[in-house]
Amino acid sequence: MLHVTAAVLQHRGRVLLARRTGPEWLAGKWEFPGGKIEEGEEPREALARELAEELDLRVTIGAHLVTTRHAYPELSLELSAFLVDLPDDLPAPELHLSDHDRVAWLDPLKMGEMELAAADLPIVAALLARIAPSP
Fold first, then answer.
1. Among 9, 43, 76, 111, which is least packed, fewest CB within 10 Å?
2. At CB < 8 A and 24+ separation, what contacts does 45-53 make?
3. What is the pLDDT of residues 24-36, one digit of tens each?
């Protein structure tokens, strides 16, 4: 079981998705950026490191959103997602991509239109449940 983290980066009502370049079986799929938790790291610490490495982005990791498990044919993973709120009064940060070829800032209700990695689908559901208006 591989332990990984993901960031639900939010800015001005939009959420960031990034398109993977590899491995081959995930290439072209959209995901919430993040990565592997190294031995001895806490999930938030790992996520901050991964965002700095993959996007050249330094942020404060916020609240835990959801932890899920998913088994791909190639590997099984446990994915912990955290909210990361970027200041609305500043422009969206300039991102420098290393593990992705594209990023998109989307209205959360439009995320389902993207070809998402299967492990990230429960994150979308948890985020939509969190922002859904109360009846």
1. 76
2. 46/5, 47/5, 47/6, 47/7, 47/82, 50/5, 51/7, 51/84, 53/98
3. 888 999 999 999 9
Q: Which two tokens stand for residue 115?
A: 């070809």
Q: How far apart are CA 59 and CA 53, in angstroms?
A: 12
8 Å CB contact between 120 and 32: yes
Q: Which residues of 52-89 are buried (b: 16+ CB within 10 A; e: fewer)?
A: eebbebebebeeebbbbebeeeeeebbbbbbbbebeee
Average pLDDT over residues 79-83: 98
Task: Report whether 66 contacts 122 (CB < 8 A).
Answer: yes
Contact of 6 with 111, CB cutoff 8 Å: no
Mean pLDDT for the chain overall:
94
Q: Give the structural domain span for 14.
A: 2-131
Q: What whole-number distance in Å separates Cα of residue 77 and Cα of residue 85?
A: 25
| CATH code of residue 35 | 3.90.79.10
Q: Where are any strands of DSSP class E within 23-63?
A: 30-31, 34-36
Overall domain count for the chain: 1
